[in-house]
Model the fold of this input.
Amino acid sequence: MMIHLFKVLLLLAFCSVVLASLCEESEQIQCKESNSRCTRIRYICDGDNDCGDNSDENSSLCKLWKNRDCDRNYVKCHRFGSSSCIPIEEYCQRSDPPCEGDLDPRICQMLRNEKLQNPEDIIMPTIREDVFKGNDLSETEEMAVEFEDLTAHTFVHPDCPHLYTKVGDSCLSIFFPGNVTWGEARSFCHTIKGELYSFDNDVTKYSALVNHLKEHKLTTDFWIGGRMENITEGWKFVSDISMELGSPYWAVRHQTQCSPRSTENEHLNTTRLANNGYCYSSLQAPENPPIGHCAAITYNNYYYVSDEHCLDRKAPLCIVNKKD
Done:
């Protein structure tokens, strides 16, 4: 009797391990036609038949797995007013708030199922689990109050046109609810009789803007009126004034590798390494070549200017046309 009981307990223990995870490693997913074979998630749609049954290279799956905005295994996630490419696994795991993007929800469901499936065979839950986690009405009502408080300092002011507020001596539309590309942001500004904001290398105007955003605790990323159309002309404001590079306007980025910096002496016509060739791990935007060809001020960079991909989504920052 004891031997029989021991066998039953051993079988139950084995089943609990199997049910806990279909594969040995968290980075793996089970192949479609095999209950014992797994492949790494990063191998999905890499061109190799790692599963043997071709389920990791299924054409309809790969059509949803790959995208034009990011590298393979990555997808664009929009949260907290900014967009970036992150691993698909991370995209599916993000919450509070979850990622917004174009990834087909069946991909996330497949990863939760821990088994490769054809997209047409993936069954989505009919009832959202978060419905049972509590009523979120009070939370959204609090957000509505915060939203209304912000509007008083972002696109409302008695001395400015509709949708504009006073910042220093200028009327700006700090349209923080927006989520558009650089070109769309500029079109939006034109629609409300303005233009994407250019501070035209005026440190007083720039400081007034940054102080205003910090004072009212804005955390949104904004497009501004700066871009690089070609290498010859370099970075220019939409007002056609050349953008002054370096401090005090442009952001500092950190990199994993370091590199020395050089200084030039125009009088002696010489170039030498700065500080005995010390290796620095920070770079100042815009990079050469630039990361992107459109200028933005982001919360991550403490509202210093940075070069960003023009198709990223951020909020429009407009200045009213003087003639209006």
